[in-house]
C-alpha cells in the first residue's frame, strides 16, 4: 500500500528519530515532516508502533494516510514536487 506519514512533533530528538524510522522503512522524504512510500500492512503496523513510542500524546501529532496507486496518479504536483515513479517502485524495478 502507498502511505503518507505526516507529523508535528515538538521535541527535536523525537522528531529526528521519527524521520529516521520513516527513512528506514523505505519512505521518501517529500517535505521536512512528510514522508511517502510503499509499505506492506506489517511494515505499516511496525512503523506505527515505532512512532507511537516516540511521541508525546499530549503535544505531538502523527498521521498515517493510506492511498491507492490510482489516487497517487491523480495527484497534482506543483513546483519542485517529488517524482511519482519513486513512490510506485517503477524506478527501482528497472534495477532488478
Automatic annotation (TrEMBL):
UniProt cross-references to InterPro entries, sorted A to Z: CRISPR_associated_Cas2 (IPR021127), Virulence_VapD/CRISPR_Cas2 (IPR019199)
Key words, A-Z: Antiviral defense, Endonuclease, Hydrolase, Magnesium, Metal-binding, Nuclease
Domain of life: Bacteria
Record's protein name: CRISPR-associated endoribonuclease Cas2
Enzyme category, top tier: hydrolase
Pfam families assigned to the protein according to its UniProt record, in alphabetical order: CRISPR_Cas2
GO molecular function: hydrolase activity; metal ion binding; RNA endonuclease activity
GO biological process: defense response to virus; maintenance of CRISPR repeat elements
Cofactor (UniProt): Mg(2+)
Gene transcribed to yield this protein: cas2
Role description: CRISPR (clustered regularly interspaced short palindromic repeat), is an adaptive immune system that provides protection against mobile genetic elements (viruses, transposable elements and conjugative plasmids). CRISPR clusters contain sequences complementary to antecedent mobile elements and target invading nucleic acids. CRISPR clusters are transcribed and processed into CRISPR RNA (crRNA). Functions as a ssRNA-specific endoribonuclease. Involved in the integration of spacer DNA into the CRISPR cassette.
Protein family: Belongs to the CRISPR-associated endoribonuclease Cas2 protein family.
UniProt-listed Enzyme Commission number(s): 3.1.-.-
Binding site for Mg(2+): 8
Gene3D superfamilies reported in the protein's UniProt record: 3.30.70.240
HAMAP family assigned: Cas2
Native source organism of the sequence: Arsenicibacter rosenii
Quaternary structure annotation from Swiss-Prot or TrEMBL: Homodimer, forms a heterotetramer with a Cas1 homodimer.
